[in-house]
Structure formats: structure tokens, C-alpha cells
Amino acid sequence: MFSNPYLSVLIIAVVTVVFIVVCSYGLGSVARWAVRMRGASPKQQESAFAGYFFAAPWIVGFIIFVIVPLSFSLYWSFTDFRIGSGSVASWKGLENYRDILFNDEGFRASVVNTLYLTVIGLPLQMGVALFLAVLLNQRRPGERVFRMAFYLPVILGFNTAVLLCWRLMLNTGTGIINQIIREVSIAVPLFGYLTRALIYGQEIITGFFLGLNTGKYNLLMRVLEAGFPADNRVPLWVQSPLWTKMSVILLMVWGCGTMMLIFLAGLNNIPKELHEAAEVDGATGWQKFWKISFPLLTPYIFYNLVVGLISSLQIFEPIFVLYRDNEPIVSSTISMVYYLWQASFSHFEIGYGSAISWVILVIILVFTLIQFRLQDRWVTYDVY
Amino acid sequence: MNKKLFTLLSVLVLASLVLTACGGAADEPKTLKIYLLDYTPDTIAWLKSDINPAFEAAHPGVTVEITEGSWSGWDTTFAGFFAAGEGPDIINLGSEMNTLYGENLADMESYLGAGAWDEISNFGPALENAKYEGKLRGLPIFTAPRYVFCRTDLATGALPPQNFADWISFAEANSVVDPATNSLTQQALVPVDAGSMADWQWWLLVFYSLGGELYKADGSPNFDSAEALATTQFLLDMRQATYGPAADAVGNLPTGQGSVIDVDDATGKDNGAVCLAHSGWAAPAFDRPVWENISIEPFHGDPANFPNSRPVVLAFNDWLAVADYSQNKELAAEWLKMTFSKEANHKWNETMGLIPARNDAQYGYVADSPQLQREAELAAEYGVGFAGIKEAAKLSTIMQDALGKLITEELTPQEVNDTIQQQYSDALGE
């Protein structure tokens, strides 16, 4: 705005404060006027003024940073707006939506990939989180250290150092994960056999999903033709399109710390008397978990399911950090939000990208509504 | 309460008015902002210690500010600059980005064109990559062609392979798999993206080596040509000769220290590549002993089957462009002139061991280094530009997507090319 950046920042800050004060005063006055019109007493009018005056900064922020961008996004979704095209956005009606839903194979592939990550990744993530929570709930020595260790990935997030570590760990030949698999397989042949069975099963499932993307099942057929994996086969983690999605799931599971804490809170809330009574009746540890803890954890499972489903339907970061620089295989794991990012910020097609974002919103809404509708059938709130 | 509020409001409005008045002073200092991507610490240190102080001394009141970014995620960053119409005055772009961002870049002909700056005639062919619609948008820093570097001490068979069949045989003979880990310990050829061996830039290099043209005479894409099909088939054959079939592929090379074609000092073992099809910056540093055993060649295409084949090195370059939203275009041009003088362009590239874009800056370390000398000769003789690609970002996405399905054998080479042809035609509005 001004050539001196410090002065510019100072002026912007002052103008912002003035703007907020004016908006607050204005909103408070409108509220006072509105209640006065309804015959409120002077005290009620003052209360209305004060309430809206102090709430105004948030309300104004919400309007500016949420409502206005949402409105623009909705408008752009009906246009061909493209950054840097040198032309203004022109109205296209429902054409973007029609293309996304009926013509865009890339978006269809991203939906299939996202569903894979949700259907397979989310239950795994929740299962591991629950398992860790149950372990930590045993009150063994070092519980706090382990709690911190399991939560650490959430704090670390997916930064460059983490990405590099994962890439090294997932290297097919020398990565520590495959090294462990190899060593344990040699020491315990049954483990090796089970691992290869898992590899085979995983590759068949992924081959099927990749076939859904293209409508051709060549790869699935080849996997079946190749037969049961040889003794020295290990997962080709970030290298093969057959393993790209599973690598993302591994990162999802690694970041299950928040779910684990919620489960842990749920386990702590279960009345001890119930377990004590079950012990008196001779219940085993598994019976106590399955018949008492698990049903009483269902509200927490429901919460994690809703939040986890929304999160996995919006998955972006793990794919971005793992495959951003490995483009020929990124299409095998591209998610809906990655596709949205690609359209908006790589191809600059803001209109089309906006339409994708609204389609994603509807998909997430539908899934969430279904979950809320079904919760009565399995979620127990009796004790709470 | 109202009275106090109005008092506060008045004070703030007055303060802002006073400060606004101060902001209008004519002799306000200016900041020239420059955004660079992944340059070496030596380069940045030199710019900050030599170029910027000299520029600031010559332009009192101007401060030069360098921001360092990364090629990972650059497109999101640039999208933000252009969407906001605000950001650095000078941005760092790659070869193919002249068409991608052209409309958002300033026409710098009046500052840097032949009529305004004599020295522009000293720039080599890389200057074309810094133009959009025939107008200069900035200046190129270096030329970094993609060569084929080969380890003569590791290779079995004649080097370099002269046609596609030779390359396939070479890949089969020179790729070594460790049965214990079911992974490669030696890879015959490491092109851009070693794992997939199917990056779009590698595809384009092979395609150009067959004499292929990206567009037909009417401007439509040429992915339905015989050269395009042969290229796609070659990529698949090479991938399979190296990694085996998709459903039973072996693991990739382990990550080593330094260039993939070098020797790991820590272990004394080779990093695993026999040949590397990449830019010079992916090759070992010039003082490494391994250079005794490295040859530098162009990619020869497939003269046995395609008579128009020609040796090719795909010439990439980085360049600095001036954004159209910049309020400091003249200052930006002055900074570019200073930074792209003969000596400065030479020095900049010396810090990175690359070939300067200015012909007259190719002296000293360029002439003294047999490797750079060879690279410069090959670039001059066989260089093909990586520019002028319409809708480059979309083509990249379309090709990467289709080539990804090639290596998994989800699509046949013919289907891959049909897909690219169809989708790219749609993207171009054909």
C-alpha cells in the first residue's frame, strides 16, 4: 500500500482496529434498535447493545473470512474463472458440476481412491487407536512416556523432516520397515507366510480399486496371474501404485494420537464398579472389554468415526508430502481434495476447483448425515 | 459509554489520518523483492554480499530483499502471488513456465530488449524461454540440458546404446537384483524419476530424439503419431527390463549419499546407477574421482526404426521474470541488468557449476572443466528447448497420470497415447 513497509503495516493495523470498533458499534446499535422496535426496556436494549458489541469482532470475522469466501466460491463454481487468464469470469451455469459428475474421469478416480482410504484406512486407524488406548489404560509403569510417544506424531504433523524419515523407512530394499519384515520372516516362517498372504490380498484389492478408476482390470488380472508372492517379496511401499494407498494408510495410522486420547478419556470415564462387579462374576479380561468397555465406548467411537470420516474424506497432506515429487504414481492415490488442489492451484481453474469443493462438501454432508441417522442403532448413551 | 467510544474512535481516526499523510512522502524507501527457488547457499551468500549491496549503493533508498523458496510447492505459492496481485517483484521460473504464467508477467522489452540494453545480444538460445508472445519477460540464468552420463567401469556392452533395442538389451544386462532383498542394487538407466522411469520430461526427451514434434501444423497435439507410440512403448520396455512386470516388480535402488551415479564415501560402494539421464546438477561434483569413469553423451533416439532420429539433449533453464503486478518494474530491470552482466552471470553459475546463459560468460571454470566444456558443446550441437509447451501444467498432469497407468500395465501404450491425445486436445480447446 505504502512504499515504507513498516508504515504500511502500522496503518493497516490502525485501520483494522478502527474498522472493528466501528463494526462493533454499528452491530450493537442495530441490535439495540431491533430490540427497541420489539418494545424492550432500556435495560434490555443496553444488554442487547453490549452483547452484540462484544460478539461483533467474531461475527464480523466470520462474515469476512467464512461467509464472503464461501459466497465467492459458490458463485465461481458456476463460472469459468481462471487466475491469470486475462479474462473475466463468465457464467457457465451447471456445466462445471455436470463435467465433474459425469465426464471427469480424474475426479471419479479421486473419489474411488478416497473411498479406499476411508473404507480401509479409517477402521485401521480407529482400531490401532483403540488398541493403544486400552494398553495405556492398564496403568503400567511408563504410561505417560508412551502416551506422549503415541501423541507425538500429531504434534509433528507432516513436515519435510517427517516426510524424509518416512521415505527412508519405506524404502523397499533398505528401509527399516521392510528390513524388520524380512528378519522376522526368516526367524518365524509363519510370519513370512502371513506377510506374503497379506501382500497378495492387498495387491488384489488395490488392483481391483485401480481397475475401478479406469474401467479396465488389466493389473488385477496380472496380479492374479502372478500368483502367490515369492519368499523374498516385501511391500513396495512408496514405489508401486499397488502400494501407494497403503503407504498413505500407514501415515494415517501413525497419526492416530488424537483418536487414542479420546478413547483413553472414554475408558477413564467408565465406572470402575462395572468392571469390579464383572470380576466378581468371573468375567475374563476380554469379556470385560467386549461386554462392558466396548458398548460404553460407543459414543466415543461414534465421535471418532464422524470426525475421522470427515478427515479421511478430506485427506490431502500425507499424499502431498509422500508423492508430490513422484508424479507418475500420484494418480494411483490421488484424493478428492488433492484433485481440488490440483485444479485450483496447479491448473489455476478456480471456477472448476470451486465446483469440486462444493461437490466434496455435499459428499461429506451425506456421509455424516447417514452416520447420525444410524447412530441410534449402535451407540449407547445409557450410562452417561 | 457512547461518549467514551466516540472519543476513542476519533483518536484512532485522527491517528490513522496523520500516519496516512506521513505515508505519502515522496522520498519513501523502496524494497525490491526477489523470490528464488532452491539455490545453493554459496549463490545466495554471493548475491547478498556482492550484488545487492552494490545495487543498493547505486540506488539510494532501495533495499533488495531475497526470499528463498523451494521447487516443492512452488505452483501453490505462485498461484497465491498472481491471485492476490501482490508478491515479489522478481520471481524464479523454470523453462516451460513462460506459457504457464506469461499473461501475468511484465513486458520487459522496453527495459531489457535490444533497443534498451546492448548486452541482450550476448544471451544464447535460452533467451527464447524467457519470452512470451515474443516479448521478453525476464532473463535466463543458466542452461542445464539433460545428458546421458554413463559409468564406463560398470557398464556391460557398448556405450552409449545407439537405438531402442540396444537400450533394452543394456537395461537387461546392467540391472542387478539382490535376491535377498528382491531389490535393485544396480540400475542400468536412471532417468528423471528413477522409480517409475516414466516421467513426462523423460518421455519428451525420447520423443524429440525420434524427430517428434509436439504439435501438428494446425496446432493440435501430436500424441497420435508413430513417434509418440514408439516413445511410450520404449518407456514401458525399459521399465520392465529394469523392474520386471508390474505385478511382480522388484524394489528400487537404496538411497545413497550424493549422486546416484557416484560412489558412496561412507560405504565405498557404488550408489547403483550405470547411466543417468538427467541434468548436470544430478551428476557428481566435478572434483569427484568418479569422473574418470563417466562419459557424457546425448540420447541418440532410434535411428534403426526412425530415420529422423537425432541426438538430443533437452535444454532446461531457470530464469528470473518480472511479475506484471510489480510496481518496481524499472528497478527490477536495473537489478536484472546488474545481476546478468557478463561477470555476474559467470559468477552466479560458478557457485552452482552450471553453464551460464550468456555466451560471453562461458569462460574460466567452464573452459577449464572438461565436463562443462563437453556439456556446453553438446548443448550447442544437440540442444532442444523445453519451452513453448501450451498448457504445460495440464499436459504434465495428463501425461503423468497416463504414464503412471502405463507402468502398472493398466493401460497399453496405445491407450496411454489415445488418452493423452484426447485429454490434451480437450485442455487446449481443440
Percent range of helical residues of chain A? over 70%
Spans where pLDDT lies below 50 across 5 or more residues of chain A: none
Give the CATH H-level superfamily of the largest domain in chain B: Periplasmic binding protein-like II
Write down the CATH topology of the largest domain in chain A: MetI-like fold
**What overall form of chain B do the CA principal axes indicate?**
globular
* SS strand fraction of chain B: 15-25%
Q: What does the main sheet of chain A amount to?
A: none
SSE topology string of chain A: HHHHHHHHHHHHHHHHH
Structural class of chain B: alpha/beta
The major beta sheet of chain B can be summarized as: 8 strands, mixed
**Structural class determined from secondary elements of chain A:** mainly alpha
Indicate how many domains the architecture of chain A comprises: 2
The CATH class of the largest domain in chain A turns out to be Mainly Alpha
What's the rounded overall pLDDT mean of chain A?
Answer: 91
Gyration radius of chain A, rounded: 27 Å
In CATH, the architecture of the largest domain in chain B is: 3-Layer(aba) Sandwich
How would you concisely characterize the structure shown here?
Chain A has 384 residues and is mainly α. Chain A has helices at 5-37, 42-76, 95-103, 105-136, 143-156, 160-169, 176-187, 189-214, 218-226, 244-254, 257-269, 272-280, 285-313, 317-323, 327-330, 336-346, 350-374.
Your description of this structure?
The complex is a heterodimer of chains A (384) and B (430). By secondary structure, chain A is mainly alpha-helical. Chain A has 17 helices and no strands. Chain A has two domains: 72 residues; 214 residues, MetI-like fold (Orthogonal Bundle). The model of chain A has no long low-confidence stretch (mean pLDDT 91). In chain B, strands 7, 8, 9, 10, 11, 12, 14 and 15 form an eight-stranded mixed beta sheet that branches. In chain B, strands 2-1-3-13-6 form a five-stranded mixed beta sheet, covered by helices on one side. Chain B has a two-stranded antiparallel ribbon with strand order 4-5. About 1% of the residues of chain B have low confidence. In chain B, α2 packs across α9, α7 crosses α8 and α8 packs across α14. Chain B is built from 14 helices and 15 strands. Chain B folds into two domains: 176 residues, Periplasmic binding protein-like II (D-Maltodextrin-Binding Protein, domain 2), CATH 3.40.190; 209 residues, D-Maltodextrin-Binding Protein, domain 2. In chain B, 48% of the residues are buried. Classes of the chains: A mainly alpha (384), B alpha/beta (430).
